[in-house]
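Q: Hi! First time asking for a complex rather than a single chain. Here are the components, and I think there are two in total. Is that enough to go on?
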Amino acid sequence: MALVSSLAALSLLQSEGGVPVKALVFKPKTAKSQDPVPIIVIAEATTQTPSSVIADIAEVKDPRLAKDDLTQLFFATTAVQFGLGHLNPDNASKCKLVLDINIENASDDKVYELKDNDSKLTISAKTLKDFLCSLSNNILVANFFALAEKKPAQKPAVPKKDKSVARLDDAKLIGVTVDKNLDFPGWYQQILTKGEMMDYYDVSGCYILRPASYAIWERIQEYFDKKIKRLGVQNAYFPMFVSSKVLEKEKDHIEGFAPEVAWVTRAGSSELEEPIAIRPTSETVMYPYYAKWIRSHRDLPLKLNQWNSVVRWEFKHPQPFLRTREFLWQEGHTAHLTFEEANKEVLQILDYYVGIYEELLAVPVVKGKKTENEKFAGGLFTTTCEGYIPTTGRGIQGATSHCLGQNFSKMFNISVENPDGADKPKLFAWQNSWGLSTRVIGVMVMVHSDNKGLVIPPRVSQYQVIVIPVGITSKTTKEEEQKILATCNKIEGKLRQNDLRVTSDYRTNYSPGWKFSNAELKGIPLRIEVGPRDLQKNTVVAVRRDDFTKTTISLDTFEKEISDLLETMQAEMLARARAKFDSHRIIIDKWEDFVPALNRKNVLLSPWCGDADCEDDIKDSSAKKDDDDDEEEDEKAPSMGAKSLCIPFEQPELKAGQKCVKCDRPAIHYCMFGRSY
Amino acid sequence: MALVSSLAALSLLQSEGGVPVKALVFKPKTAKSQDPVPIIVIAEATTQTPSSVIADIAEVKDPRLAKDDLTQLFFATTAVQFGLGHLNPDNASKCKLVLDINIENASDDKVYELKDNDSKLTISAKTLKDFLCSLSNNILVANFFALAEKKPAQKPAVPKKDKSVARLDDAKLIGVTVDKNLDFPGWYQQILTKGEMMDYYDVSGCYILRPASYAIWERIQEYFDKKIKRLGVQNAYFPMFVSSKVLEKEKDHIEGFAPEVAWVTRAGSSELEEPIAIRPTSETVMYPYYAKWIRSHRDLPLKLNQWNSVVRWEFKHPQPFLRTREFLWQEGHTAHLTFEEANKEVLQILDYYVGIYEELLAVPVVKGKKTENEKFAGGLFTTTCEGYIPTTGRGIQGATSHCLGQNFSKMFNISVENPDGADKPKLFAWQNSWGLSTRVIGVMVMVHSDNKGLVIPPRVSQYQVIVIPVGITSKTTKEEEQKILATCNKIEGKLRQNDLRVTSDYRTNYSPGWKFSNAELKGIPLRIEVGPRDLQKNTVVAVRRDDFTKTTISLDTFEKEISDLLETMQAEMLARARAKFDSHRIIIDKWEDFVPALNRKNVLLSPWCGDADCEDDIKDSSAKKDDDDDEEEDEKAPSMGAKSLCIPFEQPELKAGQKCVKCDRPAIHYCMFGRSY
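A: Yes, that's all I need. Here is the structure of the assembled complex.
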């Protein structure tokens, strides 16, 4: 049997039962003058491998399952009988190989089952991958699962261009195999899944937050919850369902959300009398009750917050953390007697959001106000903190704190008698709403992480330190080994007593090198190596995840040194990210410099007239026109035009007579523009 | 104008604009031989007042809006012109008065607008209520809002019988007006809304958790989250949506939930290709990913938990906290290599649940195992802690911890290679799932609260202590007043430093007596009164909410004394509740004693054969047959039969040859039976 002979050298006999693997041959549409190049797809049996995806990833047209003529020519077998065993380095070099990402991501000891016509074999994923590597060093990896999500204008995760270049040469199959700078979306997806932050889910646009990312959310909750409670905000929980009558009460508001509202129309086997919406946000859910509870000016301020999930059924390309159909957030809703009080809170909350980005996530942001075009529908004004993704040069909205004015209070009759006297007109409450979502995690990942995997700031990382014993060989005495492990345990214990979050890896079936890579993939900020030579000197070695600097630390002072290292790392991560943002936020006064500066991955501060039509014009005029047929590496940039990100609170000085960057009107302030998420 | 003359003495002129009030006259169906008794409904103009509800609450048949003949006879006006001003104590004594609960619950300074034919007036809620009290001391209060919820076999919150008796004689309108022992459902609803724990919502079966109840949930989260994290459980978040394909994978399981699943079929204006379910629980949401993530026995145990909300669209009578269509809970899902490990965890988690009930909520529970009939659909066995509501004599399921066995792991292929050798068969994981919901808050309220309002155990109460200045009169000097307020502030500050949760009430427009009632309504465990006479003796007075005992406390030692008092109160609340449960959990060996004991509000420990049909037979045979036409005060009890609550872990000794309490088979253990929620 061909399979056995091909694989024999690799000692593949393992236990019965495993995940079946299929190998399929596709033939692309080929000009008659040319020889066809077969495409071999190696995938888990349950993975669907639509030909459109194969076409994209292999850069071919209209691939079809090959017939016997082709398989006979290349592999001397029929299409039905073809299997992995028919491949060898010689014939493989004449083909394109496409590998299911499930197999690439499989841990070494996952068991696969290969079927030949007459028998079957089970082998470990490692064996399978070693075999494939022996066939070719240019295997294309396809994430059929992510790609299978229904969306308009479907694009492959791995772009058409530069795919083989984007693939990291020194990457092992277990690590990140895509270069951040060459294929940003593919890289983002890989580090999130391989770093075990999240997983794809079988309902499109929904994702699983695994413990590594949920722990970050818990840190953020802890930080923010404490701060808002000190402001007198109380947590509560309102239902996720809204009747259409209530949802549609505020017209501008619902217009902004209507296209994305998910509707429940059936329960069990009964049709509901009226469809019920799932909240996209809770203004209209809560405010009828604010009207009921607020009876006197002494009931003000009313300050409630909830930690919940909301649903916005977007039809655009979903992206983990950044654009998801269900997401976790907090939404605060407050009502005040005066504008001054409301306004003060809006800015206070915005500062807390800045704190989450800068103090916790080490992501610098710019504070400002949204333009009328971009503000919250139905509100008075919106403040925002805006981040920057250096790799793509795009801006990203961080979190928003809205002053709703009296618009909702008039709509819902949230009013009190006038404290100045019963003869004075009643007063409508001044309201705010403010929200921050799990999007922050996506921003953090995009800013800091690298080609080795995640890089997570110490203050939010699920684990801050990992302890790994090293240098244990066959020559190590039992006594030495015991001493190493005892030291590891002691370090773990002491650090935990100091409230650090510590993990360790004492497994004996993995090498220290493998463990290092694994910890780097997951972004654990500090790795402590405990080995025999160090112990003789009463030291251990600490390696930072962000810049890989090594520090030798005395066991007498390690608690303080490790705490200090973590704080230094936190500060330096922010400083580095800030330097990048600062050097890519540039002042552009003339329109002819605008698009070239955008194309150099900058966000721009430009004098602006404040006119909404001019804002639209800037967006249109800065969009790259599709004058050639080239597809872009990303669905949005750089063909996308520049949006106004915010009018920064911190303003460059406006020169006398300064005109708008785009039109002839006088500028009234600088506005920050950029391509954005 | 009649209205002015009737109300003139009460000085009612207030600001313009208020909530309009309507007064309607209804005429019930009356035998020709009898005089009709008009029903006057006083309600907010927007409150719908269906005649079916009026019929129930006023104990009359078929009330219709009265015509001129009746209104002329009683009020000397036409039906259209009738208004509140036409009422006086004389004619009111010949009518039944029904008051909208929204008015009864309104704070004193809420502004109402009364319209006569020719003019309108605005008066405060207090004035309105004083006026109504002057007309009659037997006003029926109707919660039209709660009653308007669509459900089969709708029953009024206030029962048909004993309604006037249930009304508390000494209750002011601001306080609880229904007696716990005489109208338990009406009382429950009133203390929850008046105590500001929750509010009704305009989607039936959904309720708002206000800060007072959400804070209790936060205490529970804190307690449980810390404990499970020590077990190695990690928090995560899975999507709320499930595809029907995945939901329906485990047949027994889905059969249990299918009739209650809410389906999203539309997003914006697009029909979805396939309806998507909202999770009723997350077994089938999570387990496909467990299968993916668990590749080796080294990936076990996998222990995840999430704090989320789930939706079960029940069509039965909804009840705040106890049966709601959306509820908050935690659901833990773990996978283990061995049954022993899974089994150990099931019991460990059950003990934590018992801890939440007994240590935090001061509610005693009985641990045990569910019968086959009552266990979790698709699981191996279910453990439970069962509570008891003394007022109704009914049992209530507290929280359940399930061992799922290998049923789901086989269905979802959650398996690992055998660690004993690759030649041994692969192993399916042993799984558990366990959940505790906000139902716990409802149980706590039912067990402890009284006719003055909520009684909340100190360990979970949003505020543990309220500081109230007393004895400030017109004779009090400015200096004395300052000293009292300074002492209040000092006490607040010191207690906060000791991590107690403290609030205060320094308002000058309410009397101390009003503040006491208000704090009692909300269930704040300890009230500290600071007055001039006490201060001369360097003391303050502490009053416990649960038994109203007063303690004089030295200002030199108040921090410790108050902490001690709170702990004593916590312990005594549990002890009292335990004494009640213990004295109403009785051993019944003979069937003839079974139903009478149930009717005496007991839960029963009876020897039982373990047969599922016998269990059904016990339920049927203990249900009260509808031999008279009397309607029950509660939709379920006592016509309801006795369910098996659990097979308690702590068993009475089974006598040799003991037969089943119901059938002729030998008993295999004692089972706890009871009417239940």
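A: The radius of gyration of chain B is 29 Å. Let me know if you'd like any chain examined more closely.
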